[in-house]
Amino acid sequence: MKQEIDFIKFNPTQNMTILVNTEHPVEDYKYIASKIMSYDNVYAEQVGFIGKPLKDKADANLYMAGGEFCGNACMALAALVASRKNLVHNNFTKIFLEVSGTEELVMCHVKRSFNKYYCEIKMPIPENIEQRSIKYDKDYLETTVIQYKEFVHIVIEVEQFTEIVRRSAEGLAKLLGSTLETNLIGILLYKSKSNELAPLIYIPHLDSLVWERGCGSGTASIGAYLYWKNKEDIAAPIKQPGGTIKVMVNSNQGNLISLKIEGSVGIVAKGKAFIDV
């Protein structure tokens, strides 16, 4: 027996994202996501579910399959809401979203430019940033741990994105996934000389391990990391395999008070997917 799933597929910096537009029980999210994001179905790096907002000010509700927070999925949903508002070329709109992984409303500024939507969104501010040596495979890795309420990012500065470095990052993500109680673990390999990021995202609840071509929340964490390291406001383009996402960090009297990212989103497909039930 097949179940029909209404979906929209987005391209935020090639971090291909599927948003499900039909209602389903939360306990089915993991199964639906694993099926629809697979190579032999619609295929994407992540899946979120659109719901009705509970707060009056919110325009839409987004719940990711693993309960994580996702900046690119927020931009994707903001683009969808803007398109449904019939936003025209060169016009702006402001959108508020309820999203998994944070209790605060996420504010998005959206501008349409022909068939693309340029989104600036306010990201969660880390609860803590600290340098930490992590033992892995008999060695100690020098890392910076960026702790959020619902997820953790690990920044590791590297000279090159070699296969050995990537395999070590994958092993570390799996190890941390088995020891930490968190919805998402990001291993962010960062080349400071060229401002390049290779983001690895592991979602323990889905056992999903993906080298993303563009990562919104990872970009925000790199901005927070650069602020923590240099003690100055940041406005930087972070280059990734799928393109560039800009991060902006503002502070007041030594405290990080604003963390935003800016990127583009294309709506590339919509229709019905069919999965076995």
Describe the structure.
- With 277 residues, the protein is α+β, with helices and mostly antiparallel strands.
- It has helices at residues 29-36, 71-84, 163-179, 216-230; strands at residues 2-12, 17-20, 46-51, 60-64, 92-99, 106-113, 116-122, 128-136, 139-147, 151-157, 184-191, 196-203, 208-211, 234-240, 243-252, 255-276.
- The chain folds into 2 domains: 2-121 and 265-276, Diaminopimelate Epimerase, Chain A, domain 1 (Roll), CATH 3.10.310; 128-262, Roll (Diaminopimelate Epimerase, Chain A, domain 1), CATH 3.10.310.
- The strands form 2 sheets. The protein has an 8-stranded mixed β-barrel. Strands 8-9-10-11-12-13 form a 6-stranded mixed beta sheet, with helices on both faces.
- Helix content is 19%, strand content 48%.
- The chain is built from 4 helices and 16 strands.
What low-confidence regions span 5 or more consecutive residues with pLDDT below 50?
A: none
Helix share of residues?
Answer: 10-25%
Walk across the major sheet and give the strand order.
Answer: 1-2-3-4-5-6-7-16
CATH evolutionary superfamily of the largest domain:
Diaminopimelate Epimerase, Chain A, domain 1
User: CA-to-CA gap between the ends?
Assistant: 6 Å
Count of individual helical segments: 4
How would the global form be characterised? globular
| Structural class designation | alpha+beta
Radius of gyration: 18 Å
The CATH architecture assignment of the largest domain turns out to be Roll
Average pLDDT, rounded to a whole number, is 94
Main β-sheet description: 8 strands, mixed, barrel
Q: Domains counted in the coordinates: how many?
A: 2
CATH topology of the largest domain, by name, is Diaminopimelate Epimerase, Chain A, domain 1
